[in-house]
Amino acid sequence: MSMFSTGILVLTSPLHTLPLRIAPVLSSAAQVVERTLYVHLHPGLNLGAGGGQPRPVFIPPVVDLSSLITGLYSNAANVCGHLDVRVLLTNVRAQPNNASSPETGGTGVACNPFPSPQPLSHSPEVVLTDFALQDPGQSPLVAQCLQRYTGHCYVCTPSLASVLLHPQLQKLEEEVEKEGQKEDYRSECMETYSEVVVGGTFDRLHGAHKTLLNISCLLANKRFLIGVCDQELLKKKVLKELIEPYGLRVQRLKEFLQDVKPSLQYEIVPLSDPFGPSVIDAQLQCIVVSEETRRGGEAVNKKRLENGLPGLVLHEIQLLKDAHHTEMEEEKISSSSLRSRLLGTLLTDPKDKSHLPLVPYVIGLTGGSGSGKSSIARQLEALGAVRIDSDQLGHETYRPGEVAYNRVLEEFGSDLINEDKTINRRALGRKVFGNKERLKALTDIVWPEIALLVKERIQQAKEEGKQVCVVDAAVLLEAGWTDIVHEVWVAVIPEEEAVSRIMARDGVSQEDAVRRLQSQWPNTQQVEQANVVLCTVWEPEITQKQGEARHTDGEKWLDKAHLKSSGTFTIHA
């Protein structure tokens, strides 16, 4: 079967039968669609012969619809996590009671929710449905009917294909009946509100985010206010260096929301404190929370009352469990878990390094003091890579007779010479400490000489038939050595952990440890130039299991042909 980048799934089964059908339907759809899957709900839609060409109608926002959306995103995370699933709500609206309402055209019957086809961020190339085909001979007619129906609702590609999923789902009808799902069906409409507010980080938009946003869109009739964490609120986040930029998170939110319910007025604002406009906006009526953030919603209401504003209705949604979580991850679907899964993977493609020989493949490994990069380098060395210690090579440049030795004495004075003719590096450090110009004069002398020694070691490894080299270099980026490596790997760790490690390792005060970190590039600046990011913050037994689980991938890593799909390395320092 052909694969399509973007598809739209039209669900026609009654709401009470859908819960048991969602997983197999999504699994079948994932065999056809590989990137974006839109979901359009029309329970009871008849695509069969004899019913004429069906038209879209408004469906009410019943309580079961909220549960269905939660289950849909939960199942999507489990069975087709690679797909960007989006449940569309343009046709979900409470039926007007007034027969003369403009929505009914004065007839008492709800008008078409799609006066013109709705454009989507990604134009569907294929439409799929769970419609129960009674007669296989009707398949071509049903397919045509489905294509016309979908084209009436959404702007699709001219060559829209169609796929009927029902042949793979027929056995489920009996299972649904046995389960007696109809008894649990809740047809009462949800309470809706003019203006709704939510807050969150919304990093790497996932199923739990989408559930929150979709249900908020169900609840909101007019305006939807979204606060997005920024700056101060990100400081304590796990792997904050891998959080997407604020602008990118907002862009993805806007695209998702515009697809889901374009009729709403959306307002997205940055949050620099836990409350934002939720405690001062008098028009807001409802805040959507989870069992985890309910206390935050209660705190919002406390502040509103202090400000003379009425409290908000707290609408609580359930957390989505992550069926694929590991020992080191949360049980719920979360952005922090998604960020942890990026460790050791290729985040950005390496720049063109055609001026470098393919063998050996050179990885530049860097990170701040205490980041555990040397532990990572030793792990890679154990897997067969040649480790090149730039710090050790730095010591060599100060030896009597070396080029840097003479130039340092010329620049900083012969009073640095010890009795054994070596340079007193402690005294040299005092001459450059706190003086950027003098420090630059020193690095301009030493760094180029270290780079030459690194190149010599790489050449030596090539002559010995080695496949991979790892350049362990704290100053890799500052020194501009990225042109001598194929990839840049960066080790990161929270500052408080780095401070503790430096104090324990070097016997220095907290102030000195902090000062040392502040003299180096911050993690975020280093990650911007990284192809691969690693972290050594977790417990040894957990990282040990990770290393064992990825040993096979580690062996692949030694083959330059597989470097871009290399194993994950998360090693405790």
From TrEMBL:
<keyword id="KW-0548">Nucleotidyltransferase</keyword>
<dbReference type="InterPro" id="IPR014729">
    <property type="entry name" value="Rossmann-like_a/b/a_fold"/>
</dbReference>
<dbReference type="Pfam" id="PF01121">
    <property type="entry name" value="CoaE"/>
</dbReference>
<keyword id="KW-0547">Nucleotide-binding</keyword>
<comment type="function">
    <text>Bifunctional enzyme that catalyzes the fourth and fifth sequential steps of CoA biosynthetic pathway. The fourth reaction is catalyzed by the phosphopantetheine adenylyltransferase, coded by the coaD domain; the fifth reaction is catalyzed by the dephospho-CoA kinase, coded by the coaE domain. May act as a point of CoA biosynthesis regulation.</text>
</comment>
<feature type="signal peptide">
    <location>
        <begin position="1"/>
        <end position="17"/>
    </location>
</feature>
<dbReference type="GO" id="GO:0005524">
    <property type="term" value="F:ATP binding"/>
</dbReference>
<keyword id="KW-0496">Mitochondrion</keyword>
<keyword id="KW-0511">Multifunctional enzyme</keyword>
<comment type="subunit">
    <text>Monomer.</text>
</comment>
<dbReference type="Pfam" id="PF01467">
    <property type="entry name" value="CTP_transf_like"/>
</dbReference>
<dbReference type="InterPro" id="IPR004821">
    <property type="entry name" value="Cyt_trans-like"/>
</dbReference>
<keyword id="KW-0597">Phosphoprotein</keyword>
<dbReference type="GO" id="GO:0004595">
    <property type="term" value="F:pantetheine-phosphate adenylyltransferase activity"/>
</dbReference>
<keyword id="KW-0173">Coenzyme A biosynthesis</keyword>
<comment type="similarity">
    <text>In the central section; belongs to the eukaryotic CoaD family.</text>
</comment>
<dbReference type="InterPro" id="IPR001977">
    <property type="entry name" value="Depp_CoAkinase"/>
</dbReference>
<dbReference type="GO" id="GO:0005759">
    <property type="term" value="C:mitochondrial matrix"/>
</dbReference>
<keyword id="KW-0963">Cytoplasm</keyword>
<protein>
    <recommendedName>
        <fullName>Bifunctional coenzyme A synthase</fullName>
        <ecNumber>2.7.1.24</ecNumber>
        <ecNumber>2.7.7.3</ecNumber>
    </recommendedName>
</protein>
<comment type="pathway">
    <text>Cofactor biosynthesis; coenzyme A biosynthesis; CoA from (R)-pantothenate: step 4/5.</text>
</comment>
<feature type="domain" description="Cytidyltransferase-like">
    <location>
        <begin position="197"/>
        <end position="340"/>
    </location>
</feature>
<keyword id="KW-0067">ATP-binding</keyword>
<dbReference type="GO" id="GO:0004140">
    <property type="term" value="F:dephospho-CoA kinase activity"/>
</dbReference>
<keyword id="KW-0418">Kinase</keyword>
<dbReference type="InterPro" id="IPR027417">
    <property type="entry name" value="P-loop_NTPase"/>
</dbReference>
<keyword id="KW-0808">Transferase</keyword>
<dbReference type="GO" id="GO:0015937">
    <property type="term" value="P:coenzyme A biosynthetic process"/>
</dbReference>
<keyword id="KW-0732">Signal</keyword>
<comment type="pathway">
    <text>Cofactor biosynthesis; coenzyme A biosynthesis; CoA from (R)-pantothenate: step 5/5.</text>
</comment>
